[in-house]
């Protein structure tokens, strides 16, 4: 910059007066601060940013199931937030928590580094009283005779589902043991990049399913592998969401069902490794976390996904329960605090939020992928709190009201569906993932306004019916990844890329809840149709595989037995054909990967405890 000599200004001292020098210096320092601040908003790929804001992690991994919509991260979602100024919503709590979690994580890593296969013995408070917990349940968790149905046809169907689980498991064990998932056509294992080096996703996801089905030899093999071979000292980039719902959820539920202390120790170690993800200016966690090294990570300003940071609450509350350390609950309550405070377009929650500024990044709203389990966790947080979490309840019913006002549609053929919303414009499409919402609406039907109870039951039934139609209108009787209601389509996929089925559970999940809450036999029939279709089209010689086109008469397999098939699809089918006293809904909520977590009865747990021995079937 060139400074010209101004008339009347002394040439001495670079030609500037003291006050002018001061203004100039002020201007200069402002400029430097601005430039430095702007670095945070540059894309991660810009060299300058890497030089000045070096961090320990590398590029984000792809998250979500292989074909999951969360794949948008892989495509590098454009982040308009980069262009905005920082309006940090970070409150006092998150600053305090940042300091706390930094300390605890470092300490834990130092401890776990010295240990083998899982680093047991990390920050675990062993004071959790498992016997007392059991006494606080209202009913025995496995019911009378493990929920065995009295009617022979239902029993036979349940046995069939158990056989499917054993077949899926045995093949995983033979060809992919210790890997994350089975590739049934090539008979080998798949590791993928969602779990940051963690292995055995199918084992951890299967523990509770094997246990409730009474497949005890298989359960014991799974338990032994977790004990001896589940190495939590991995060092890769993982999806916080996927690790939480599958590993944390799977281990928590294995502990609560069996009382095996080893599961608790493992989950405590893993829980601590997730805490650094929350070290962002807002406390909204980033989607990707390096499990191996503690890092700030927040210089990476990509947006966080509603369904990911909104799907931690159930597991984190239980991590606090078991460790007697409030940090986990504080982390998720901080997320909720921000979501409550932020303005919501038409009362809706968009799918992307900047963890740096705490602002929405795009106005895309969906009950399917990217949004789905956030809504699920609101109502389940309320139910899991023994109906004491009034804030979750309020958020859930207001969100549902906004969804009904803006997204729920009726097709010309009379099918109710939940469209997607893009800045006020409706996309008349429903994803398979959105089909969980029949189950969600029905479990919340009783606790809304009394005059709305019947309305919610009807809405849940209509959505479940629509999702069933998406199955029955295909050649295979399995549903596509997404189906549309425009251009003459009614619950069918119009794009080639939406025609696949990857063994997803959501439609069957809604059948299970609808059955439990209405006992309308059609839900069991619909579930059985799905079993027959799975057997006919997805069962191959060495396991189960997804298919590429549900409308094709001759199927083409995708060579992947997803871990959620064992954890969710088969578990929900088994429950559908069991009596209601197997994992009664009064005592258990299922996380979004179908891992049962118990209702937290604070007053009972802190008081004398329940009076009944719930350890054995009554
Ligand atoms: C599962 O991992 C979970 O249900 C998740 O919430 C959504 N996607 C898969 C199953 O489709």
Automatic annotation (TrEMBL):
Keywords tagged on the record: Calcium, Disulfide bond, Glycosidase, Hydrolase, Membrane, Metal-binding, Signal-anchor, Transmembrane, Transmembrane helix
Keyword Calcium assigned: yes
InterPro entries: 6hp_glycosidase-like_sf (IPR012341), Glyco_hydro_47 (IPR001382), Glycosyl_Hydrolase_47 (IPR050749), Seven-hairpin_glycosidases (IPR036026)
Uppermost EC category: hydrolase
Domain of life: Eukaryota
GO molecular function terms listed in the Swiss-Prot or TrEMBL record: calcium ion binding; mannosyl-oligosaccharide 1,2-alpha-mannosidase activity
Biased composition range(s): Basic and acidic residues: 72-84
Topology relative to the membrane: Single-pass type II membrane protein
Catalytic activity: N(4)-(alpha-D-Man-(1->2)-alpha-D-Man-(1->2)-alpha-D-Man-(1->3)-[alpha-D-Man-(1->3)-[alpha-D-Man-(1->2)-alpha-D-Man-(1->6)]-alpha-D-Man-(1->6)]-beta-D-Man-(1->4)-beta-D-GlcNAc-(1->4)-beta-D-GlcNAc)-L-asparaginyl-[protein] (N-glucan mannose isomer 8A1,2,3B1,3) + 3 H2O = N(4)-(alpha-D-Man-(1->3)-[alpha-D-Man-(1->3)-[alpha-D-Man-(1->6)]-alpha-D-Man-(1->6)]-beta-D-Man-(1->4)-beta-D-GlcNAc-(1->4)-beta-D-GlcNAc)-L-asparaginyl-[protein] (N-glucan mannose isomer 5A1,2) + 3 beta-D-mannose; N(4)-(alpha-D-Man-(1->2)-alpha-D-Man-(1->2)-alpha-D-Man-(1->3)-[alpha-D-Man-(1->2)-alpha-D-Man-(1->3)-[alpha-D-Man-(1->2)-alpha-D-Man-(1->6)]-alpha-D-Man-(1->6)]-beta-D-Man-(1->4)-beta-D-GlcNAc-(1->4)-beta-D-GlcNAc)-L-asparaginyl-[protein] (N-glucan mannose isomer 9A1,2,3B1,2,3) + 4 H2O = N(4)-(alpha-D-Man-(1->3)-[alpha-D-Man-(1->3)-[alpha-D-Man-(1->6)]-alpha-D-Man-(1->6)]-beta-D-Man-(1->4)-beta-D-GlcNAc-(1->4)-beta-D-GlcNAc)-L-asparaginyl-[protein] (N-glucan mannose isomer 5A1,2) + 4 beta-D-mannose
EC number: 3.2.1.-
Protein name: alpha-1,2-Mannosidase
Organism phylogeny: Eukaryota, Metazoa, Chordata, Craniata, Vertebrata
């Amino acid at each position: 910059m060139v400074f010209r000599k101004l008339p009347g200004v002394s040439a001495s001292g670079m030609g500037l007066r003291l006050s002018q020098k001061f203004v100039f210096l002020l201007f200069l320092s402002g400029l430097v601060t601005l430039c430095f601040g702007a670095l945070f908003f540059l894309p991660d790929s810009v060299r300058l940013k890497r030089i000045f804001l070096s961090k320990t992690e590398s590029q984000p991994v792809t998250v979500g199931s292989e074909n999951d919509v969360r794949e948008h991260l892989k495509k590098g979602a454009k982040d308009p937030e980069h262009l905005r100024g920082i309006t940090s919503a970070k409150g006092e709590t998150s600053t305090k928590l940042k300091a706390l979690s930094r300390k605890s994580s470092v300490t834990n890593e130092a401890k776990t580094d010295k240990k083998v296969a899982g680093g047991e013995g990390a920050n675990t408070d062993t004071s959790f009283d498992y016997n007392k917990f059991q006494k606080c349940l209202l009913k025995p968790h496995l019911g009378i005779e493990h929920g065995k149905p009295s009617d022979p046809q239902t029993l036979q169907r349940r046995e069939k589902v158990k056989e499917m689980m054993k077949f899926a498991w045995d093949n995983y064990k033979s060809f992919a043991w210790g890997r994350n998932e089975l590739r049934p056509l090539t008979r080998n294992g798949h590791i993928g990049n969602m779990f940051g080096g963690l292995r055995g996703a199918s084992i951890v996801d299967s523990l509770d399913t094997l246990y409730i089905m009474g497949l005890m030899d298989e359960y014991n093999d799974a338990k032994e592998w977790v004990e001896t071979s589940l190495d939590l000292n991995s060092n890769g980039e993982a999806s916080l969401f996927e690790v939480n719902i599958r590993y944390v959820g799977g281990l928590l539920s294995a502990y609560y069902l069996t009382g095996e202390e080893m599961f608790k120790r493992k989950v405590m170690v893993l829980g601590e490794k997730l805490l650094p993800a929350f070290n962002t200016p807002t406390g909204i966690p980033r989607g990707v976390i390096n499990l191996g090294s503690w890092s700030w990570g927040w210089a990476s300003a990509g947006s966080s996904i509603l369904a990911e940071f909104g799907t931690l609450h159930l597991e984190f509350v239980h991590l606090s329960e078991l460790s007697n350390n409030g940090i986990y609950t504080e982390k998720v309550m901080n997320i909720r605090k921000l979501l409550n405070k932020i303005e919501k377009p038409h009362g809706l929650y968009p799918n992307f939020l900047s963890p740096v500024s705490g602002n929405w990044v795009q106005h895309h709203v969906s009950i399917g992928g990217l949004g789905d389990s956030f809504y699920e966790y609101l109502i389940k947080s309320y139910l899991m709190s023994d109906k004491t979490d009034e804030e979750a309840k309020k958020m859930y019913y207001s969100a549902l009201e906004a969804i009904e006002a803006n997204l729920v549609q009726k097709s010309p053929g009379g099918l109710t569906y939940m469209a997607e919303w893009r800045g006020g414009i409706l996309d008349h499409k429903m994803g398979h993932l959105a089909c969980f919402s029949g189950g969600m609406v029905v479990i919340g039907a009783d606790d809304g306004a009394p005059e709305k109870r019947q309305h919610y039951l009807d809405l849940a039934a209509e959505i479940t019916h629509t999702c069933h139609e998406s199955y029955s209108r295909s050649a295979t009787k399995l549903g596509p990844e997404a189906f549309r209601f425009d251009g003459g389509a009614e619950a069918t996929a119009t794009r080639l890329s939406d025609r696949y089925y990857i063994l997803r559970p959501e439609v069957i999940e809604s059948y299970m809840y609808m059955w439990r809450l209405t006992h309308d036999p059609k839900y069991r029939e619909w579930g059985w149709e799905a079993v027959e279709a799975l057997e006919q089209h997805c069962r191959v010689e060495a396991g189960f595989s997804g298919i590429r086109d549900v409308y094709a008469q001759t199927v083409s397999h995708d060579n992947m037995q997803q871990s959620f098939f064992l954890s969710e699809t088969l578990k929900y089918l088994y429950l559908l054909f069991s009596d209601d006293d197997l994992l009664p809904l009064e005592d258990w909520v299922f996380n979004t990967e179908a891992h049962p977590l118990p209702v937290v009865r604070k007053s009972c747990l802190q008081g004398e405890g329940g009076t009944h021995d719930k350890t054995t079937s009554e």
